[in-house]
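call fold(seq) -> tokens
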Amino acid sequence: MTVASTAIIAGAGALPRHLALALRAAGEVPLAAALEGFAPEGLSVDITFRVERLVPFLRELETAGVSRLVFAGAVSRPRLDPSLFDPLTAQMVPRLIGAMQAGDDATLRAVIAIFEDEGFAVVGVSDIAPDLVPEAATLCGAPREGDVRDVARAAAIVEAIGRVDVGQGAVVAQGLCLAVEALPGTDAMLDWVAATAGRPDPAGARGVLYKAPKPGQDRRIDLPTLGPATVARAAAAGLAGIAWEAGGVILLDREATVRAAEEAGLFLWAREP
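ret:
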């Protein structure tokens, strides 16, 4: 196995591949590890693991020379098979179950703590590929006065649902909340808006999507993500644009995303929190 100092703990989606490209550009060949059932897009996986065999997986990382980790990609809570637990991993079960019952954010914090307790440094996407996490700027288009008000309203809503660990996004039009992100995710929220949500004034503001991390979230893991597919769904939902908290959201395929937004007539705004 290739000796690597950095391991990408990969989930589904394109983000793991982008991080691998950034690491290779910096002269490092990362190790890619994926939770069984959540293969990343366009990235060969070196190790596939299960939660029930977490301690043996940690030993594999040590043997491979890994000293730091970055979590990237989408996963959902796996169904655990009690018959597969090894004795050492079984000792972690109460800790994991307690965190899972407290919500997604608590679960992620517990996972990070386990890896750190084993001596691994856990870093964030911005530590490896800062260009993927844009700072404050308007990338294309320009929000109108009504859009700015809708973004502010959506930001307040996202902060509120984030405090109770529900989601990281909301759609607002003309001051009204059309939808909030929950377990099904951003794509499902936008598809619902496209299919069902009207506006009180057809000639008024068309609405915005806003995304931000949850208040107090550990930003090394589970940052909100946007990309060309988000733009396509936002356009299909009839929105005027997409805004997000500057420095707190991952933007995949930046050039393609901006190009898609320009073609659809949407603004993209990384907003100061």
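The two ends are 44 Å apart (CA to CA).
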